[in-house]
Automatic annotation (TrEMBL):
<feature type="domain" description="Tc1-like transposase DDE">
    <location>
        <begin position="34"/>
        <end position="105"/>
    </location>
</feature>
<dbReference type="InterPro" id="IPR038717">
    <property type="entry name" value="Tc1-like_DDE_dom"/>
</dbReference>
<dbReference type="Pfam" id="PF13358">
    <property type="entry name" value="DDE_3"/>
</dbReference>
<protein>
    <recommendedName>
        <fullName>Tc1-like transposase DDE domain-containing protein</fullName>
    </recommendedName>
</protein>
<dbReference type="InterPro" id="IPR036397">
    <property type="entry name" value="RNaseH_sf"/>
</dbReference>
<dbReference type="GO" id="GO:0003676">
    <property type="term" value="F:nucleic acid binding"/>
</dbReference>
Length: 149
């Protein structure tokens, strides 16, 4: 699962995400890779139709050589990295905590059912920009308006 909260001055805050099921199997990748993450960023760029300033944690795939090359190919993308071990500064961590809390007392018997529930919870958040704004406010990070002095 990968996600980001997109903000654009004058527009509502958006949650964009990708959910991928990794079936068990020897030698199969069990996490999202650089191409998965950059596909999410490319999708957000298409949605917003604007340059992106991305504030990212230091997940190994976010800081790898391959990712740096993918970022360098996109002149519309600027990336800043959060300090190491600072999930409290990452509003997407608040999203995951919110989703996990909503699933805490459910007993799911099949992976596809869990996937449907997670997608449902994420979809609900997409229609709650005030909650997403609260996740950002909770980090203490502020958005500087480039138009203000």
């Amino acid at each position: 699962m990968a996600g980001l909260i997109a903000m654009r001055p004058g527009s509502r805050t958006r949650l964009c995400h990708r959910l991928r099921i990794h079936r068990a199997g020897k030698g199969k990748r069990r996490s999202m890779g650089e191409r998965d993450f950059i596909a999410l960023v490319d999708g957000v760029h298409q949605l917003l139709k604007a340059p992106i300033v991305l504030v990212w944690d230091r997940l190994n795939t976010h800081v790898s050589h391959a990712m740096r090359e993918l970022i360098a190919e996109r002149d519309w993308l600027t990336v800043f990295l959060l300090p190491a071990y600072s999930p409290d500064l990452n509003p997407v961590e608040w999203v995951w905590a919110h989703v996990k809390r909503s699933l805490a007392n459910l007993a799911v018997v099949a992976l596809d059912r869990l996937e449907a529930l997670v997608r449902n919870r994420l979809k609900r958040l997409q229609y709650r920009p005030e909650t997403l704004d609260g996740f950002i406010a909770g980090t203490g990070l502020t958005l500087d308006d480039p138009a203000s002095p």
